[in-house]
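retry 2 of 3: previous attempt timed out while embedding C6P. Reduced batch size to 1 and resubmitted. Inputs unchanged:
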Amino acid sequence: MTSFPAHPKIKHKKMIFMFSPYLIREDFPILKRKINGHPLIYFDNAATSQKPRQVIKAVKEFYEKHNANIHRAVHTLSHEATELYEEAHEEVAKFINARGMEEIVFTRGTTEAINLVAYSWTLRNLKTEDEVLLSLMEHHSNIVPWEILSEIKKFKVKYADVNGDGTLNYEAFEEAISRRTKMVCITHVSNVTGIVNDIKRIARVAHDYGALVLVDGAQSVPHMPVDVKGLDVDFLAFSGHKMLAPTGIGVLYGKRELLEELDPFHGGGEMIRDVSYNPARGRCIITWNTLPWKFEAGTPNVGGGVGLMAAIKYLKSLGMENVKAHEHTLTEYALKRLKDYPYITVYVPEETSTRSGIIPFNVDDFDSHDVALFLDGYGIMVRSGFHCAQPLHQRLNLHSSVRASFYVYNVKEEIDRLIEALKEIQQL
Ligand code: C6P
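retry 2 succeeded.
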C-alpha cells in the first residue's frame, strides 16, 4: 500500500466542515516520506507530534519578515515581534480558558514549567514537616524535581498508588493526603497508559485540605479540551512540541494571584523592572517585571511562540472535541483488533471512556526495543522502553513496553498495517 484512500468528504471541502484525518494528512509534509521502502506511519505522537504546513509557514514567515528581540528596542521589527509574541500568549490563554496573558508563562516545555514551580515555590514555602503528594504514574519530569528539592528542604514526597490496571487508586490518594500536604502534583493523562485522571475531583480534595494543585498537562492539552477554570487547577504545565508546534516552547499556566506571590525562577534581562546599585549597601536593589515577564528571563523563544500560536489556531479549526473523538475511535479500533492475537498483551483496561489515544503493549518472547526496531523496518514509528515513567512500569511489573500513540493525522488503515507487521513478527 503506498497511499491511503481519499475521504469521501474531500470533494466537499469548501461546503461542509467535517473532521477528516485524510484531509488533515495533506497538511503534514513529513507523512509523504517513505521509511525503509514503506510509507511512514507515525505512532510516536506521545513523544512529539509532527508539524503541519501552517506552523512551518508561520515560523518561516516570522524569521523572513519579523525577526527581532522583543520588549527592548523602539524600531519597527522589535515592535512587530513583540506584538506577535504577546498575541501568542493571549491565544494560549484563550485555548485553556485562563483569565489572560498574565497567567501564561512561556517555558522550554513541560519539564521546565514543572521545575519553575518546584524551585520557586518550594524554596520559599516548604518546611520540614510539609509534604508534596505525587502519584506512581508520573513522568520523571514530575518526580525528579521534587525529589531533588526534598533533599535540600527536607520536606516529604509521597506517592499515591495506582491499581494493577494502571488507573489511579483514588482511595489511596485520599488516604495519603492530609493537612501536611501543601501541593498535589499529578498528571492529567498518563504518557504510558493514556489513562485520564479525574482532575476536578483531585483538585476538590486537594483544596479541601488547603493544598495547591499542579497538573502535568503534557498528554492532555494536545488531545482534548482543557479548561483551567472548570478544572480549578492552580498550575498547568504543557509542551508545544506535542501539539503541532516547534520544540523548545512550552507553557506554565498559573492563577494570577499565585504567580504574583511566586519568586522568579531564573534571573536576568526582561524579568526585571529596575536594577539599581545602592552604594550604601554595596548591592543592587531589584524590582520584578509584571506578569508573565517576571518568569521569562533572557531573550525568549519568539519564533517558537509564533509557531505555538499557529498550532493552536490549527487545532482550534479542527475542534478539540473532534480531536478527542477521533483518537477515541482509533484507540477502540486498535484495541479490538489487538485482542485477536493472544501473543500480544495490552496493558490498559478495556473500558475506554477515560482513555486517550495511547496503547502500551508487549509481544510474547520479544524485548520492546526489538519490536520497535522490527516495526521500523515496516516504516512504523513506535516508542519502546519505559517512556520516562519507570516507577509506573515497576508498579505494573513490567520491564518495558512498546507504545503506540495516535494523533489527528492517523487513520485506521495505519492500525491495520501495524497489526499486519505484528503478525509477521510472530512468525520469526
Ligand atoms: N513525554 C514521551 O515519550 P517535555 O520533554 O518537557 O516536553 O515533556 C516532559 C513530559 C512531562 N510529562 C509527561 C506526561 C510527558 O509525557 C512528558 C514527555 C515524552 O512520553 C518524552 S519522555
